[in-house]
Amino acid sequence: MSRDRMIRDLIGKVAVVTGGNAGLGYFAAEQLARRGARIVIATRNEAKANAAIQSLRREVDDIVPSSFVQLDLADLASVQRAANELSTLPSIDVLVANAGITEGTAGSVTAQGFESMFGTNHLGHFALVSRILPSLLTTLSSRIVHLGSISHRFYALETDRPESPEKFCSFRSYARSKLAVMTFAFELDRRLRAAGHDTRSIVAHPGFAVDELTPARPGVTPTAVPNAVAQKIFGAFAQGKDAGAWPIVHAATDEYLRGGEYVGPAGWQQLRGRARVTAAKAWARDPAVAARLWELSESLTDTSIRL
Q1: Which of 26, 62, 207, 258 is deepest in the core (most CB within 10 A)?
Q2: What is the mean pLDDT of residues 272-280?
Q3: Active-site option among 155, 174, 256, 262
């Protein structure tokens, strides 16, 4: 079978990309736009979103008009407003739940007082998915692509023991927030299948994607000229954010995926390379942990997912 026949036709489809104004989100949006999707960039900053939209117009021939919805995942009130606006779209064929933060401090919290990385990366997207799920369920063969991370390998998820400020570790908090994203994503797909829905929930991760190896997009990518030495070093084991977006787009478009997969780079340690289905750690698929996380997330976000 040819590769073209394995790819979903996105002409006439709507793809919502959170954080689509920069980095992995932007390149996922660009690649989805090349396949005919109408892109909706959901992000905090309208000026940055408009710069990304201008870049899409320069890079993609015959692009379908793109649009912007204001979304701050660190504020559940903003999430609700964005969800209300997104729910007015004619369809949501793909939701790329990409936006998030990679660093934090012991005192960094969301608008509702949650630790910033867990609150933004997981709770914000949990609330968004819960509020736009009706639109996704009424769209034939819709997909939710959640952004995971290889960092989920290093820590178990503790839903009943919040990290105390004096023991805060930014990387550990990030890894656990991404593990929460993945645990929710896999459990969501299991419940979707059990309820007989054809909406698919899939996790993708970018490997080790760095700015130094990323092609320039004026107004979107960093303006500093990449250091040649850094490029050579990173080139041995990393990739650009354009390549880091390949697994995201694969998860959104590959017809062979049935839901519940974990997609990442095919190279050594999943750091770089073409996209393929790979294995997540078993604890990311623990149903008992997923049930506790689901209940906690509904309580903290004042939302409810019923399938």
Answers
A1: 26
A2: 93
A3: 174
3-class DSSP string for 171-232? HHHHHHHHHHHHHHHHHHHHHHHHCCCCCEEEEECCCCEEHHHCCCCCCCCCCCCCCHHHHH
Evaluate whether residue 307 is within a structural domain.
Answer: no
pLDDT value at residue 165: 54
Q: Which helix (H) or strand (E) holds 293?
A: helix 287-301
Which stretch of DSSP H or E encloses residue 296? helix 287-301
- Name, in order, each residue with C-beta under 8 angstroms of 214's C-beta and a sequence gap of 6 or more: 27, 221, 240, 241, 242
CATH of the domain at 207: 3.40.50.720
Q: Is 26 among the residues known to form the active site?
A: no
Other C-beta atoms within 10 Å of 252: how many? 30
Structure tokens at 33: 């736009």
Element (H, E) at 18: strand 14-18
| Amino acid making up residue 135 | S
pTM across the whole model: 0.93
Crossing angle of the two packed helices 287-301 and 170-194, in degrees rounded to 10: 100
Residue 5: per-residue pLDDT: 44
Domain range spanning residue 97? 3-301
